[in-house]
From TrEMBL:
<dbReference type="GO" id="GO:0003871">
    <property type="term" value="F:5-methyltetrahydropteroyltriglutamate-homocysteine S-methyltransferase activity"/>
</dbReference>
<dbReference type="InterPro" id="IPR038071">
    <property type="entry name" value="UROD/MetE-like_sf"/>
</dbReference>
<dbReference type="Pfam" id="PF01717">
    <property type="entry name" value="Meth_synt_2"/>
</dbReference>
<dbReference type="GO" id="GO:0008270">
    <property type="term" value="F:zinc ion binding"/>
</dbReference>
<dbReference type="InterPro" id="IPR002629">
    <property type="entry name" value="Met_Synth_C/arc"/>
</dbReference>
<keyword id="KW-0808">Transferase</keyword>
<dbReference type="GO" id="GO:0032259">
    <property type="term" value="P:methylation"/>
</dbReference>
<feature type="domain" description="Cobalamin-independent methionine synthase MetE C-terminal/archaeal">
    <location>
        <begin position="9"/>
        <end position="336"/>
    </location>
</feature>
<dbReference type="GO" id="GO:0009086">
    <property type="term" value="P:methionine biosynthetic process"/>
</dbReference>
<protein>
    <submittedName>
        <fullName>5-methyltetrahydropteroyltriglutamate--homocysteine methyltransferase</fullName>
    </submittedName>
</protein>
<keyword id="KW-0489">Methyltransferase</keyword>
Length: 362
């Protein structure tokens, strides 16, 4: 079976105390960048061994070298910078650190540090599949601040962004990557009234924005090699066990399930905020895998396995069971702060996914 697997995971894992401490030491000038990287290398080796040990088929580096799931990648594109914002991103009851990204020059993908990050993961994957995660192009298209002197309109921005992503995908492929995931919180603006207000504030409307999001994904992956799997994770926010958005997939369902050329979709379905499974009726390809995020990564308590199995069967009314898979709804640490559970609970969650999947897809 090729990826995504019946038991899979989104990608990020809790950062060990040793990595957090080393990052602070590097920030304070107590250790060098090389010393920090050596510590990260050791912890990534340990993490990959643990993923193999619990029974995962795909292994990631846990996003161990990143502070943010998206800014670190985007800020390393040509023409994009990380900056100190006036305020952080507002989640339910908590705010992130005040950072943002801005486009200050022509966007391109040339000497990107994450290619080396992938190569290290590839060197330790053994017989397993190495999965690497990067933010979707929509994260820059919709969430980035753009200098109008560089790009006067979204169409010209989209053109260069797509070219940069096409280069990125080829570069990861050339480095050995055969399982790449695009992470995307931007789709959530279509899911609720609050999201639609965000779109209106930007002087846009869902009718034109939705096809633009679709194009950003499909055109970016248009030249992907045949033996490379590209999936997308659609998220409603994940920071210190909180979220930013609510609402079902309904308003964008035809495009998401019937109009994207990805090989798989990782979807949040861990609570009522994500709506029902009815939108899966738009799945129109036998080769599209739907990864149901029914296990929460936000809290340590384990879900009732029978209740999860019942929900999988409910989803199977709308999409064939053999096209469904199971995973946590998101990573365990979308930012370096991580969710509010212990490493032990994290691994119990991963084992829970694997055990349930083994029962369902015998």
């Amino acid at each position: 079976m090729k990826a995504p697997f019946y038991a899979d995971h989104v990608g990020s894992f809790l950062r060990p105390a040793r990595v957090k401490e080393a990052r602070l030491q590097k920030e304070n000038g107590d250790i060098t960048a090389e010393q920090l990287r050596a510590i990260e290398d050791e912890e990534i080796i340990r993490l990959v061994e643990k993923q193999k040990e619990v029974g995962l088929k795909a292994v990631t580096d846990g996003e161990m070298r990143r502070a943010w799931w998206h800014f670190d990648f985007l800020a390393a594109l040509d023409g994009v910078e990380l900056y100190e914002a006036e305020a952080g991103i507002q989640f339910k009851g908590v705010q992130t650190r005040a950072h943002g990204i801005k486009v200050t020059g022509k966007i391109d993908f040339t000497n990107h540090p994450m290619i080396e990050d992938y190569k290290f993961l590839h060197s330790i994957k053994g017989d397993h599949v190495a999965k690497f995660t990067i933010p979707s192009p929509n994260m820059l298209l919709f969430r980035g601040t753009v200098d109008e002197n560089v790009y006067a309109d979204q169409e010209s921005l989209l053109t260069d962004l797509v070219k940069a992503y096409q280069k990125a995908i080829q570069a990861f492929y050339d480095a050995g990557c055969r399982y790449l995931q695009l992470d995307d919180t931007a789709w959530a603006v279509f899911f609720s009234e609050a999201g639609k207000e965000q779109i209106a504030k930007r002087g846009q409307n869902p009718e034109t924005l939705l096809p633009m999001f679709q194009r950003a994904i499909n055109e970016s992956i248009a030249n992907k090699p045949e033996d490379m799997v590209i999936t997308m994770h659609i998220c409603r926010g994940n920071f210190k066990s909180t979220y930013t958005a609510s609402g079902g997939y309904d308003a964008a369902a035809e495009v998401i399930f019937g109009g994207l050329n990805v090989d798989g979709l990782f979807l949040e379905f861990d609570d009522e905020r994500s709506g029902g499974f009815e939108p899966l009726k738009y799945v129109n390809r036998p080769d599209l895998k739907i990864v149901l995020g029914l296990i929460t990564s936000k809290f340590g308590e384990l879900e009732d396995p029978e209740a999860i199995k019942a929900r999988i069967q409910e989803a199977a009314k709308y999409a064939p069971l053999e096209q469904l898979c199971l995973s946590p709804q998101c990573g365990f640490a979308s930012t370096e702060e991580g969710n509010l559970l212990t490493e032990e609970q994290q691994w119990e969650k991963v084992s829970h996914v694997i055990n349930i999947a083994n029962d369902v897809w015998k």
